[in-house]
Structures are given as C-alpha cells and as structure tokens.
Amino acid sequence: MPRLVTATRVASLVGPLVDRGDAPAYSRLADALRQVIADGRIPQGTRLPSERDLTGPVGLSRTTVTRAYAELREQGYVLTRRGSGSVARVPDVPGGRVDHLLAPSSLGDDGRVVDLTCTAQGAPSGLVEAYQRALEQLPTYLQGTGYYPSGLPALRERIAARFTARGLPTDADQVLVTAGALAAVATACGPLVGRRAPVLVESPTYPNVVAALQGAGARLVAHPLDHLTQDWDVPGLAAAVRASGARAAYLIPDFHNPTGALMGAGQRAEVARVLRGAGVVAVIDESLVDLSLEGQVMPGPLGAHLPTAVTVGSASKSLWGGLRVGWLRAPRGRVDEFASSRLRLDLGAPVMEQLVVTHLLDRYDEILAERRAHLREGRDALVAGLARHLPDWRVRVPAGGMALWCALPSPGSTALAVAARSHGVVLAAGPAFAPAGGMDGWVRLPYSLPADQLAGVPERLAAAWDDVVRGRVRPGLAGARRIIA
Questions:
Q1: Which of 44, 76, 176, 364 lies 20 to 30 angstroms, CA to CA, from 339?
Q2: Global confidence as pTM
C-alpha cells in the first residue's frame, strides 16, 4: 500500500511556493509540486491527495488542480492509475544514480583533479608516533589468537568513558569495536532488520548506509529533512512511522550527512518521544558528532532519550579513515544479540589499528582542535568562493560537520557532475543521497580538503554550471563510479 500524504500536508509544503510569481495558478501549483517531489519532501511512491481533496487546502479550483496534475503527468512527476489514484514519481535522470555504493576509479596523480566525493581528511599529526607506540605494545598480544570480536578492552573502556562524559552512561561491556561505522550499522541490522521490513531513513541520507540497509533486506521509508532550514519535521516523522509500521530507523542527528543539520536538544526529546511511543528502535550515527566548528555546546546524545537505541560511531572522520575502526554501543540486555550479529560479519578489527586509536584518544582533544581548525578554514574558503562565483546557489552554512549541501537554481546536479569532471572536479550528484529518488537540484560539496585547494573549486564549478545551463553537457556516467564517504 503506497504511503499517503494528506491534502493539508501538501498545502503546507507548496503554499509558499504557489503564492510566488505571475504565472497562471495551475502552472505555479505544478511547479511547486514538482519542486517538493524532486527535493524528496514528498518521497517517490507516495500517493497524492485526489484533485478534489486538494482544492480546499490550497485554495484553488478543482479545474486548476486538475490541470496542474495533468502537467505533472506529462512531465513524469505523477503517475495516475484508475482505481489507485495519483502517485509521486521522479523521472529517470540520464546518467543518474547508478548505485548507492559506488566503486573507486583512478583520478590520476597529477594533482590537478579535485575529488569532492569523500568527506575525509588526511592523517592527523602524531599518527606515526601512535603507530610506533602501538608496535611497542604489540608483542604483548602475539601469544594469543589475535581475535577480539568485541574489541580490545582498553579501547572499549575509552569509548565507553567518552559516551558517559557526554551524558550517555555506558559500560565497556556495551561497546563493540567494528571495522568502521558502516560495519557497525551492518552489525545492528542483524537483530533489527528483517526481510522486507520497513526502516525509516532521513532523506537525503548517507548513500552507503542505504546500500547496507537494502542489503539486509530492508524496505526503506524516506522521511524528508527540510534542506534549507535543516530541520526535522516531527509531525511528519510521526505520520511516516504510523503509515509505514516501521520498527527501526537510521538517523544522523549530529551534523547530518549531507545537509550538515544539527538536531537541537528540544527536537531530540520530541523525536525520541515519537520513536518510543511507536516502539521504533533507532540506529543513531554519531560519526560526525565531534566536528563542531563554532565552539558551541553540543546537545546531549539522542541515545540518552532512547534506552533501546543503538549508537554507532567511527574514528574515520575525526581521526583517519585508513584506521578502519568504528564502534557500536548496544543497550543493556541486548549486547549478546549484537555480539552474535558481529560474529556473522567477521572476527574483529585489526589489533594494531585498535592500539593506534587507543593512543590517539589519549590526545584526542588536541587532535580535534587541529581537525576543527582545518575544516573551518576549508568551509569558509568554499563559502566565500561560492558567494563570489555562484551567488544564485543557495546554501545554509553548517555549524559543524564536513560538507555543504547546495541548492542549485534549477535541477541539473547529475549533468553538473559530468561537466565538472572536464573542469577538474569530481562530484557526487544529489540523486546519490536520495533514498526515494529525486534531488537532482542539490549537490554536496565537502570542505575536508585543504583551504588552498578548495579556494579554486567554485570558479571551476561556475564554468561547469555554465556548461549545464547552456546545454553543452551530454549526461552520462563519466566520473560516477566512485566511493562516496
């Protein structure tokens, strides 16, 4: 049964857009509906209200609404079947999303190509010394098997202590060390995700988790996140849970990837109330939680409001991706379930890298200060360049995280990704982040590279966007098959 969006909800989404401009009312309504469908605020596959039901809430005649629906059908944004009503859809984008999990390809090593597909930094200072200290400790572990499925005790204790210090009391026994946050999500899928089970995800969201959830058999239920206000729609979330019957959810409340949104303390309590009331177990991704850039006091963990939640994190964003160390915090009483799920994936993260992370956590605050300064410089350089070269691109500057989420003046993200390659920039197009399709009007721009490298990117993107606007781009798959991180 397709998810249904009410006429009142549609009116609240399109109302401000319908009131703009001098075009005929049917055209303005069609444009507004097309925009909210393309942005994923009305997810693909959602059943729209009937033409008759929509007339009152939008304040337009039935003839006007009927004509708007007809225009959307012609453009491929609405599919109407007799007896089933009208359903939102997203037209196929030539050269669009190939897969959520993309494979790497060589960029060449001449340094002229800027890769903006990954939110990842180079290694922090002191990494070699941490490896040297770990190497000195390694002989202690050589007499054993080397298998630590739950992780080294010393590392688990440090991770548990950090959870506790942030307001989520945690024992080391509740922590499982994994090969990155993605492996932690895969571990959580074992007890939580059944075949064809509905799982709520934000839209947009992190592409590789989409692949992990679908690989576990989940049926994704997309809950739109407001792109520009960077806000969670709590009533909409409650409606999505009720309509879908979802009993699991994947959420990124801390500097959301890709939008950079930060869920406020009050909203965390509201979201938790909705999920608790519906019996939904949340998988909370805190991979970016430590990357605040404005010196702000961070809200307490969302998991502190949800005793049943699973929280995952990673050393990849704050330390270094090459370490491949992540973790899962399981609720008391379910640790054995998640530990069993962990064993179905592999027998543990490498001992050497766990030792390295343990030593890096000893000077974590110092490392974070360096990382935050680096990201702040990159963000500000990119924002300044966009304001100068692409002033009609809309972006809300995030207070943390690793990327900007930019609204283009018109759909064309996929074509932009193709055009940008010829100007020496590799992008992940907006549709890659859309679990329910759409979002060709958005593009993610990481600012994790050095500021001097990012400073020249907006001018290149301006040239690429001009190619798109002037119709010089033939959409294809060039540069699409890459890792998105």
A1: 364
A2: 0.82
- Render the burial of 404-428: b for 16+ CB within 10 Å, e for the rest: bbbbbeebbbbbbbbbbbebbbbbb
CB-based contact 348:270 (threshold 8 Å): no
- From the list 252, 326, 318, the residue with the least C-alpha distance to 286 is 252
Q: b/e per residue, 78-90, with b = 16+ CB within 10 A? A: bbeeeeeebbbbb
Residues lower than pLDDT 50 in the chain: 93-110, 477-481
Within 10 angstroms of residue 128's Cβ, the number of other Cβ atoms is 10
Instruction: Say which residue the tokens 């922590």 belong to.
Output: 175
Q: Quick one: tokens of 160?
A: 């548990």
Burial 287-306 (b: 16+ CB within 10 A, else e): bbbbbbbeeeebbebbbbbb
Which residue(s) pair with 233 in the sheet?
Answer: none
Nearest to 113 by CA among 417, 467, 453: 453
Within 13 Å and on the Cβ side, how many CA atoms surround 423? 22
Task: Note whether 187 and 176 are within 8 A (CB).
Answer: yes
pLDDT of residue 96: 43
211-to-41, 94, 131 alpha-carbon distances in Å: 21, 21, 33
Phi-psi region of 427 (alpha: psi -120 to 50; beta: other; left: phi over 0): beta
What separation, in Å, do the N-terminal and C-terminal C-alpha atoms of the chain show? 33
pLDDT tens digits for range 341-376:
999 888 889 999 999 999 999 999 999 999 999 999
Predicted pLDDT at 95: 42
